[in-house]
Specification:
It is a single chain. The chain starts with 6 loop residues before the first helix and ends with a helix. The N terminus is likely disordered. By secondary structure, the protein is of the alpha+beta class. It folds into three domains: 118 residues, no CATH class; 119 residues, no CATH class; 192 residues, no CATH class. 41% of the residues lie in helices and 18% in strands. A hairpin with a 5-residue loop joins strand 7 and strand 8. It has 18 helices and 22 strands.
Amino acid sequence: MLGYVEFAKIRKAPYALTLAPYGHFWFELQATAQTGGISEEPASEEPALDFSSWSDLMGGPVRPQLEHVLPQFLVRQRWFGGKARHIDHVAIRDLAVVPDLDVALLIIDVRYFEGPDEAYFLPLIRLPVELAPACLERYPQAGVAKCRGGRGEIVDATVDEGLCQWLLQVVGQGLRVPFVTGTLIGTAGQSFAALRGDESEPLVTERSSAEQSNTSVRFGEKIIMKVFRRLEPGPNPDCEVTQYMSDERRNAHVPTFVGSLRYAPREGEDTTLGMFQNLVDNQGDGWSWTLEELGRYYEHQATQPFAQGLRALLRRPVLSSLGDFLSSEAMDVVGLYAKAAGTLARRTAELHIDLAAGAPGSGFAPGAMSRSDLGALSQQLREHAGQVFDALKMNIARFPDEVVEHAALVLGRRREIADRFRGMEDLDISLKVTRIHGDYHLGQVLRVMDDFVILDFEGEPARPLAERRTPKSPLRDVAGMLRSFSYAAQVGYQSFVARHPRDAAPLEPWAKLWENCVSAAFLATYREAVASTDLIPSGNAELGLLLDAFLLDKALYELNYELNHRPAWTRIPLLGILALCRELPG
């Protein structure tokens, strides 16, 4: 999920900086990145097709030829989510030819040897042979196949300005474009005309090189289009929540909804292909800004002795001790960031209050979780924990010695963690559940002056769409942000001591102090902001138990992610789980 990073940064990078799928770490794309054992380096020789026009895809030999080469193209794409699975074959399900452009819009089905099929949206364009080299030099992963006889080259059409301008027109004019068996439907939001301006004046387009599960294209300094690649029937949560928050709730700290593109099949539910929203002028995403602040913090604190009076604040703040942190001299040490954490907490609370204000039948009506529902949730969290522990046990042999020690300690907490989740069953409360962000962390907010804008409401992309739209406790988002503060403190610390190894031991308590003070400022402000609602339990005991359960579950999710994507980073969630186990009551 692209975090709409500052486009100035994207333009300067030969391979754009992008967010990791979990969203916490920045990394630079390498031309020879390996994913799932399949090289993402462009093929040395692209296949060639007997292609003369897009109507050839309706029959004849070119259709199976294209279907045959598409797997090779897909595994090179950042947005393709099936790299760890073996593709059996790809089939074109539906197709539309774009008028006056040498472009076709494809809905394709990817079928695997094991597991369920997946559907993807793939617009393709045929570029003349004289234009293709420059395009592929800029977007080396976009090439699909050459056309025999010098008839051009087939590439991903999101690189083409003409197609992007046409898609914006489809939304603005509310067009319905026929596919062979379905229909593309454009829908303009309430703010489309104001943000688009004079339609006779084209907005220069620029595709972002930063990719995750979607593709982003900027229109001037006004609008950004997000093209959803993997398709699932039903409303897309990002599009759905952005439109609700913008058009219904007028929330100024969420991007303004501009419009959407939907594919309506002949039978079944519509699928969202794209969303348009305003381009937010910003100073970077919350994650990169936080790391910059931490760099300055560690630079200063490296020369300061850790005062004995601050040691009482090295234990994680619990609800009853938030005041001790807020009134301590440590808040002055943390400085600007503690104030920013409070601002972010208020914006988070406003988001949750708006998400809980939906009318019945709107898709945003809140619900209640009974004691029996809490029991079912407890069981779900225990099952998730069991899966993560099994994965950790299977991978422990490949860790370095110091990580093996942490992993063994975490495995030794398996029963204890299960018991903590089981404790939710004893809560005698009716818990309010609402739509939530679902994948909330510092990479999902933009720093805008001294404030924040919240974005990317897709939820955790690995989870089914229906699950991402299911109402949940807002405390899950709170736990996600608290864990993100913890990640930032550790990543910033490790980055600094890698350059200044002698400062490792003296800085360790300063890292923990920063995490605890920032978490206390966020939690205290959030709790105050929702005090007049019933979004969270009012009692310290019930609230603390639920929050601790969600913190543990999030840390386990992080561990599972790192095991699957970045084994070298497993130390951070392992330490987080151990810290939570040590510091939770009992």
